[in-house]
User: Which sequence fits this backbone?
């Protein structure tokens, strides 16, 4: 099968133009799925390449801060640090947690979805603020 790079380029451009995170195109027996995180062709994922000529110092610091075990949002929605306003937060920086512990709630379409930790560890960083919108796959906390 020959990959039509022109279609992939056009779809990638549409992501930026319309501020989308994912786009899927199907024609006959060919299915192309493009997202800001990866490119998928007929269910075979290929990592998206990003080219940096020069990384500013602030970006380097952000990259260094992100080392550790990342817990990501399983859905698009609004992240909440506690089960209800004024209640005790699920996690705090420095708190030891176990795999499966709720680290946050992501609300989508009036449904509160508990996000479990994917590993044991100590909370190194909380990457989203309470009430902040999150994307699918966005890092919400980092564990050591």
Assistant:
């Amino acid at each position: 099968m020959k990959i039509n790079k022109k279609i992939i380029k056009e779809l990638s451009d549409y992501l930026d133009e319309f501020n989308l995170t994912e786009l899927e195109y199907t024609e006959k027996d060919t299915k192309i799925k493009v997202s800001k995180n990866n490119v998928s062709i007929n269910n075979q994922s290929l990592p998206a390449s990003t080219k940096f000529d020069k990384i500013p110092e602030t970006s380097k610091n952000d990259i260094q801060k992100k080392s550790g075990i990342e817990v990501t949002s399983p859905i698009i929605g609004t992240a909440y640090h506690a089960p209800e306003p004024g209640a005790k937060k699920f996690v705090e920086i420095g708190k030891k947690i176990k795999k499966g512990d709720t680290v946050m709630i992501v609300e989508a379409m009036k449904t509160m979805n508990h996000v479990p930790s994917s590993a044991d560890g100590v909370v190194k960083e909380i990457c989203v603020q309470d009430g902040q919108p999150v994307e699918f796959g966005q890092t919400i906390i980092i564990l050591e």
The CA atoms of residues 55 and 61 lie 10 Å apart. Residues 5-17 form the longest helix (13 residues). Confidence is low (pLDDT under 50) at residues 38-65.
